[in-house]
């Protein structure tokens, strides 16, 4: 805070080493002050350092700073590093920063990295897609739901929760017949969020209201409220004496919504 109010050149020389502190708050604060005073000069130096240094700690610090600053000028060096680096930690850090920046130019690089065999990098790449609200992205994420990997499916669901729109319902309907309760739960939540209903959706919710999975049942009850589906009240009332207190309370609240 003290240094941020100073313009002396000696202050700049003090701040540069602080950008590589082990304390994230310190390095981000130092970078923020230098960005305000040096602008493009700082970015040029950091870009060069990111692409040329063999010092892993400094590389990670620069990546972290780029994400914190959130500047579109930093996207290209991050993309290059993401694709070319063989270090897992570097790739994960680049994905975090590109997600924070959310510039569409990064989409191609992120999709390229999704093809990796490393499950952690693949999951982080899928999570990063949450910053890109495009139909082709949501379609790819919905397609990822059929994976056998719990980690990948969870990442896809997390991103879809932020991106899903009524336009994606046609793709979601492909999974209405799935026996996977995690996917059924997610679909119920999505339907409640986008408030889309037709005969197929109504039948899916009715089936979910008969589910033996308490979590699916809970989300199906919430969907009934969100969709104002009073015609499902009989199915809702069936759960007034459910063994789960959460389900009982939710069913009573759902029924009360229509009184």
Helix percent reads: 55-70%
User: Rg from C-alpha positions?
Assistant: 24 Å
The gross shape turns out to be elongated
Tell me the β content.
under 5%
Rounded to the nearest angstrom, the distance between the terminal CA atoms is 57 Å
SSE pattern: HHHHHHHHHHHHHHHH
User: Can you count the helices?
Assistant: 16
Low-confidence stretches: none
Q: Kindly report the average pLDDT value.
A: 90
Strand count: 0
Class from secondary-structure proportions:
mainly alpha
Largest sheet: number of strands, sense, barrel closure: none
Question: How does the SSE layout of this entry go?
Answer:
Elements lengths: L8 H10 L5 H15 L1 H13 L3 H14 L5 H10 L3 H14 L5 H8 L4 H10 L6 H9 L6 H14 L5 H4 L8 H14 L4 H10 L5 H13 L6 H5 L7 H13 L2
Helix pairs in contact: 1-2, 2-3, 2-4, 3-4, 4-6, 5-6, 5-7, 6-8, 7-8, 8-10, 12-14, 14-16
Folded structure, characterized:
Helix content is 68%, strand content 0%. It is mainly α and 259 residues long. The protein has helices at 9-18, 24-38, 40-52, 56-69, 75-84, 88-101, 107-114, 119-128, 135-143, 150-163, 169-172, 181-194, 199-208, 214-226, 233-237, 245-257. The N and C termini lie far apart (57 Å). The model has no long low-confidence stretch (mean pLDDT 90).
